[in-house]
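User: I'm putting together notes for a lab meeting next week and I want to include a structural view of one of the chains we've been expressing. I don't have a solved structure, so I'd like a prediction I can at least talk through. The sequence is below, exactly as it appears in our construct file.
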Amino acid sequence: MIEGKLSIRAKAIKPSSTLAINKKASELIAAGEKIINLSVGEPDFDTPDFIKDSAVRSIREGFTKYTDSSGIRPLRQAICDKLKNDNGLNYDPDQIVVSCGAKHSLFNIFLAICDAGDEIIIPAPYWVSYPEMVKIAGGIPVICNYQSNFKIAIDHLKSIITNKTKAIILNSPSNPTGIVYSKKELEEIAEIACENKILVISDEVYEKLVYGGTKHISIASLNQEIKQLTIVVNGVSKTYAMTGWRIGYLAAALPVAKAVANIQSQITSNPTSFAQKAALTAISSDQSEAEKMVAEFEKRRNYIIENISPLITCCKPDGAFYILIKIGNMTSAELAQRLLQEEKIATVPGDDFGAQGFVRISFATSMDNIKEVITRVNRFAEKNK
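Assistant: Thanks for the context. Below is the predicted structure for the 385-residue chain, given as C-alpha cells.
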C-alpha cells in the first residue's frame, strides 16, 4: 500500500551501483572474506592534517551557524583565484555557487536548466549518476557513442543534436575511463556547442589527477563564446581526499549561477559551515600534499599498465584513478560476478557506465593491493583465454 504512494520519479530511479557494490564488498569483508575492494571512487589517503585542523579551529571559534546559501565569500573568492591561476578563467564571486559536493552542484544544474522533455547529451562511458540525475530533473538523457579510445564519436554527437538539446556533459579527466581531452579535441566539441547554442556542463572534479605530463584544459578557457555556454563543476573531494566533507562548486554565467543559488537556497540553505572553512584552507594553501597523492596514484597506474596481461583489454588512463578492463567475451555482469566469487575482487560492471563488457577497477588503494590484484586478474585471464 505504501509503495503506491511513491512518485513515479522515485520508482524509476536506479540506485547507485558503485555505492551498492561497495556496500556488498564491505559486508563480505566484515564476514571474514578477503576481498580487495576496487569499486569505490575515493582516494584511500586521509585528509591532510592542516585541512582537518582548519575545520576543528573553525568549530571551536563558533563558526557553526548558517552561511550565505551560495557559500562564504572568502571561499568563493578563493575559487575565483584558483580558476584564474590554474585554468585561465575569470569569474566574479557572484558567479560561483558552493554546494554539498560536486554531485550536488551537478544536480542543481539539471534542476536549473531542464524543463520536461529537454535532452541532455551524455557521452559514454559516463559516470553512473549523470543519467539518473537528468531524469530526476525531468530531462531526457541521450547517450552519445564512443570511439575505440573511449572519446566522443564526433559524427554521432552531431547526429543526435535536436531542437530539444539543452546541454552536453563533458567529463575530463573521466570517470570511469581516465581519458583526458586535448585542446584540439575540446576545440572541436566547443565549435559544435557554439554552432548549436547548447550548454556544456564541464565536470572537472579530477582535474588535478593527471599523469605522464598530460595537461588538463578547461573547455571554458578556449574563448569567450564557449565560456558563456559552459558551466564548470569542480570540488575538493578527489584532489584533497575530502570525499566525506561534501564541498563542491560551480562557475557559470551570472543568470545560471543565480538560478542555481535560488534553487539551493530552498533545498539545503547552505553547505556545511566548517567544511567550507576546510575547503578554503585546502584550495588557498600550499598544494604539496595533493601533489604527493597524485605522484602515488601515477606509480600505481604505471604498475598496472606495465604488468597487466596482454589477454586483458584496457585503455591507459591519463587521469583520474580508474581503468576499464575487459576479459574474453563475458558480459560486464558476468565478469564482475566471477571476479568477486573466484578472485575476491570487487569491481563495478561497465554496463552501468555505458561500457558493455567492461568492468571498472579503481587504483585508489595501496600498492600491495594493486600488486595482488594484478596477480589475480592475470590468473583469471589465463584461465579464461
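A couple of points you could mention at the meeting. The domain at 3-47+288-383 is CATH 3.90.1150.10 (Aspartate Aminotransferase, domain 1). The chain has a mean pLDDT of 95.

User: Perfect, that's what I needed.
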